[in-house]
Write a structure and sequence with these properties.
The structure holds two protein chains of two kinds. Chain A is built from 18 helices and 21 strands. Chain A is an alpha/beta fold. The longest helix of chain A is centred in the middle third of the chain and has 22 residues. Chain A is globular, with a radius of gyration of 24 Å. By secondary structure, chain B is α/β, with parallel strands linked by helices. The chains are: A alpha/beta, B alpha/beta.
Chain lengths: 476, 476
């Protein structure tokens, strides 16, 4: 079978976008609002204007950073036998979002996410067989703003054994996160060797790293953490309205951040990500579920491959609020395109309403969508056995295949079996309650008993000790 | 740039499937019951293997492939509505043959001829749908004359090119008479067809019904575009492995193609590439699955291999317009559009495995088609869309592109605007009633149907068409 990778940008177009990005970095540069980061860039060959906090990047500096960045990255779950190997050809699926709202399956009401809710959501995600990576889905409202990153990480460490993707707030946040993760992993050295979490960072478009972004990036690179850098300019607002323009600006922002990471620590593991999206001018809202979002994900994967870097992007996004056909259609379209594009990490499980509301029913539906798409990615096997001419001959015109040995031995391998999608006949569906897919998913969610193996009590206490200390420092 | 058609088979695999198909046709043969049909095939160079089984050599098949036109052109009753089916064109067409209707008030009921007129009127006005189809088999018209009666309700409402469903040769005759009334003469219909004849299916495995021949004969004598469909179910009426099911199906199709090209060399003949599906344990029909998508994708490629225009189906097994319906529709439409299916049918309605039609789902599917159309167009990368001047003027830091001339010049082309899918912020969405896609679609369907359109045909033409249909009821 041919590899199922889509082709959107021609090699010339990729080159054009690359050259334009180098141009932007050299002539316009980026605003870097952290003094240490500016100093590091200055030392590494950037043209720095310290008073204007502007760094301009000569092309050779960016090219050398690209040479140092690893082409493949290995990430690990709590158990180091759970390996996420980010390299060309591998596609993994992930949650994401930092939402503040959540659909409570018991009341069917939308509510703000608390620490307990986040723990419950995390356990639900931990039990989903198609979710490979747990990126933080919520920002608990009952935890202090200054140390929310630590609460998020602690809740994730306790409630999932999957690899974690989380942000951190500044140098202190990175250090606290490392302390927590190393308790689970055993030592700082083991954590470096088997990363348990990836540092999730963004830029401030257009072309800026604010103080926290820059200082966190510096601290993360120094600590040897894998870093996902996700510029997310909004075409028409914080990026050019044309897809090629906003893509190019995001590409430049990523390359600037990459140059900073490599200046701190040559060989720093950085994952190419874009959350480029568009502004729906007619409605003044950001679009994340539409076809343009998918086109930008295909381009994201292609630009990452152009640089031989691992990639990540949104793939299960929707603008829909209700659990309706729009939600299903947008989620599928996005997931299919991101998967066909070969993004190494396709993120978005469970997020709805842009990235504002976690829906537990949708987490299960997304899991099903991923499973369907994965079957499609396996393609069609064309062999003598699969063409089965001897079976066709034996069955003959007008015959039946049901009881042939070929059917019995092959059907499980060849056919996809849904867990949630409905295939009953109408009368059975009606007699069994006439529930739509959201209702069926909510019923399943309410009886979900999945809990990952608990952390050792001492480790757990140690983790929360780090948080209490952080809170005390911040006076919370 | 645009997506080039996505190939999922290697050239070698295409050839292997072709060779398997030729081997089936040569060594196993296809059941052709009617002596006159066998005579036509023998006349073309086939031989009778045993009794009613016909063996067709590769050279005969390839001659028929060469004689069939690669592109079928249809012009609707509105001469501005033209489609080209073939090459790299992707067209979207309604569903067909549905028996029951999900009312706008949520009730399931038997479909009527009036429903058929209403569904056709709605679909005719959906902006992203290219062709109408015999969307319903109305239950109040079952019996002889069903399809003439159905056509008499479709033709007066259909300004777009249309596929008309038939079952017998006499149905084709009726359509020929009605079409001559609509266009003024039989000659005009031959010169400028506005419809294809959606044939009666063959019976897999490898079994041509008598009426398959009758219909092909009736259509080809008049030069009407048609094809030979079948719906092989892996594990029941075809090998459970997709590649085997494809080869078997293609053998049936080529038998029809040889018949058509022998009766009328050069007759437009479309290649239906879909396979069906079944839940083997319960025996239920499955109409949406990754395997169906894969067979459609590979089929698009095989049709290109032969230079024949392709058609494949999309449907959903969901019972209501829920997230499953959206996901399954989006999956099949996107996968098959990317693969370059020339005519994607089932693009409106086709719920509950092609058993239920809903006006709401038609409107929802219209938005999905719109997204897929936008998607396959890709985007351009050039000096203007890269927007380097705008980036230099606005970035970095707190600049906004909202009022920049580049944004004003390009915003209209940048984003696809859905008709019922929401892009609003949640607060705004709630202010507008917090409608689900289904509710918004119901409202849009009502709005479209409330507007009176100028009739496409004169009242005399419509009356004459109805008279013809009635005469065929009596004949039957």
């Amino acid at each position: 079978m041919e590899s199922l990778n889509l082709q959107l940008l021609s090699p010339q177009e990729q080159e054009h976008i690359h050259q334009a990005s180098l141009d932007i970095l050299e002539k316009v540069g980026m605003a870097i609002l952290d003094a240490e980061a500016l100093a590091i860039l200055d030392g590494a060959g950037a043209k720095v204007d310290a008073t204007k906090k502007r760094a301009r990047f000569p092309a050779e500096m960016v090219l050398s950073a690209l040479e140092h960045a690893p082409k493949e990255i290995k990430l690990y779950g709590r158990d180091t036998s759970q390996i996420i190997h980010l390299r060309e050809g591998n596609v993994y699926y992930s949650t994401s979002g930092y939402a503040v709202q959540f659909l409570d399956p018991a009341t069917r009401q939308r509510k703000e996410i608390t620490q307990d809710d986040l723990a419950w959501i995390t356990r639900l995600a931990d039990g989903l067989d198609q979710v490979d990576i747990y990126a933080l889905m919520g920002t608990p409202v009952d935890a202090p703003a200054e140390t929310n990153d630590r609460y998020q990480l602690a809740i994730a460490l306790e409630n999932t054994t999957k690899h974690i993707w989380n942000t951190a707030y500044g140098k202190e946040g990175v250090e606290d996160s490392l302390r927590m993760a190393e308790m689970v992993r055993g030592s700082r050295e083991a954590l470096r060797q088997y990363p348990l979490f990836t540092l999730d960072l963004t830029t401030l478009s257009p072309l800026q790293l604010d103080e926290r972004q820059a200082s966190t990036m510096v601290a993360g690179a120094r600590a040897g953490l894998p870093i996902g850098v996700s510029p997310g300019p909004i075409g028409g607002a914080t990026g050019p309205v044309t897809l090629a323009g906003t893509l190019t600006q995001a590409n430049a922002e990523f390359l600037g951040a990459l140059a900073l990471c490599q200046a701190v620590q040559p060989g720093a593991a950085v994952i190419y990500t874009q959350w480029t999206r568009s502004l729906d001018m007619a409605r003044g809202a950001v679009e994340m579920g539409g076809p343009e979002f998918s086109l930008l994900r295909v381009a994201t994967a292609e630009m990452a491959r152009y640089y031989h870097l691992p990639s990540r992007g949104g793939g299960l996004m929707t603008d829909a609020k209700a659990a309706d056909a729009q939600m299903g259609a947008e989620k599928m379209l996005n997931c299919l395109m991101a998967s066909l594009a070969g993004l190494n990490v396709v993120a978005g499980v469970g997020q709805t309403d842009f990235i504002n509301t976690v829906r537990p029913d949708q987490m299960l539906i997304d899991n099903e969508i991923i499973s369907l798409v994965k079957r499609m990615q396996r393609g069609i096997k064309v062999t003598d056995e699969s063409m089965a001419l001897d079976v066709i001959q034996a069955v003959g015109p007008g015959g039946n295949y049901l009881t042939t040995d070929h059917t019995v031995s092959e059907f499980r391998k060849e056919l996809w079996f849904p867990k949630l999608f409905d295939r009953r006949v109408w009368s059975v569906w009606e007699a069994e309650g006439a529930q739509d897919i959201s209702e069926r998913a909510l019923q399943k969610v309410l009886t979900n008993q999945h809990t990952p193996s608990p952390l050792d009590q001492a480790v757990r206490q140690g983790i929360w000790q780090v948080i209490h200390e952080a809170d005390r420092r911040h006076g919370a | 740039m645009k997506f080039p058609p996505l190939n999922i088979l290697s050239m070698d695999e295409c050839e292997r499937i072709h060779n398997a198909t030729m081997e089936i046709l040569r060594d196993i043969g296809v059941h052709v019951g009617l002596p006159e049909a066998r005579a036509v095939l023998v006349d073309a160079g086939a031989s009778v293997l045993t009794g009613e089984r016909v063996s067709i050599p590769e050279a005969v098949v390839l001659r028929a492939v060469k004689s069939a036109p690669p592109v079928i052109k249809l012009t609707g009753l509105d001469p501005a509505k033209q489609v080209e089916i073939g090459g790299q064109r992707v067209n979207f067409m309604s569903g067909a043959g549905i028996l029951d209707v999900l009312d706008l008030d949520g009730q399931i009921r038997a479909s009527t001829l009036d429903d058929l007129a209403e569904f056709t009127r709605l679909c005719d006005q959906l902006e992203y749908l290219d062709l109408n189809h015999g969307i319903l088999d109305p239950r109040d018209a079952q019996g002889p004359g069903l399809y003439p009666l159905a056509a008499s309700r479709i033709i007066p409402q259909s300004s777009k090119p249309t596929a008309l469903v038939i079952d017998t040769a006499s149905d084709v005759e009726a359509i020929a008479e009605m079409a001559a009334v609509a266009l003024g003469s039989a000659q005009a219909v031959r010169e400028r067809p506005f419809f294809t004849i959606h044939d009666s299916n063959s019976r897999p495995p490898l079994y041509l019904n008598d009426k398959n021949y009758d219909v092909i004969l009736a259509a080809c004598q008049r030069g009407f575009p048609t094809g030979l469909t079948s719906w092989p179910m892996p594990g029941l009426s075809a090998p459970v492995t997709i590649a085997g099911a494809m080869a078997q199906k293609y053998a049936e199709f080529f038998t029809g193609l040889v018949l058509a090209q022998t009766i009328n060399p050069g007759n437009p003949f479309i290649f239906p590439v879909e396979i069906g599906g079944a839940e083997l344990r319960r025996g239920n029909v499955v109409t949406a699955s990754p395997e169906i998508g894969l067979a459609g994708m590979a089929g698009a490629q095989m049709a290109r291999f032969y230079g024949l225009p392709s058609v494949a189906v999309t449907a959903t097994d969901a019972k209501t317009p829920d997230a499953q319906a959206g996901a399954e529709k989006a999956f099949l439409m996107t996968a098959q559009a990317l693969a370059g299916i020339n005519l994607i049918h089932g693009c409106t309605s086709e719920m509950d495995g092609m058993m239920i039609a809903s006006l709401e789902q038609c409107v929802i599917d219209n938005d999905i088609m719109g997204m897929v159309r936008r998607l396959v167009c890709g985007f351009s990368v050039d000096a203007d869309t890269l927007a380097l001047e705008a980036i230099a003027a606005v970035a970095p830091a707190d600049g906004s592109y909202l009022t920049h001339p580049h944004t004003l010049a390009h915003y209209k082309e940048a984003i696809f605007e859905p008709k019922v899918f929401t892009r609003q912020r949640r607060s705004e969405w709630l202010e507008h009633g917090g409608l689900s896609a289904r509710q918004a679609a119901a409202a849009r369907a009502k709005t479209i149907l409330s507007v009176k359109r100028p009739p496409l045909l004169t009242s005399q033409q419509t009356a004459e068409i109805e008279r013809i249909a009635m005469s065929y009821c009596r004949k039957g």
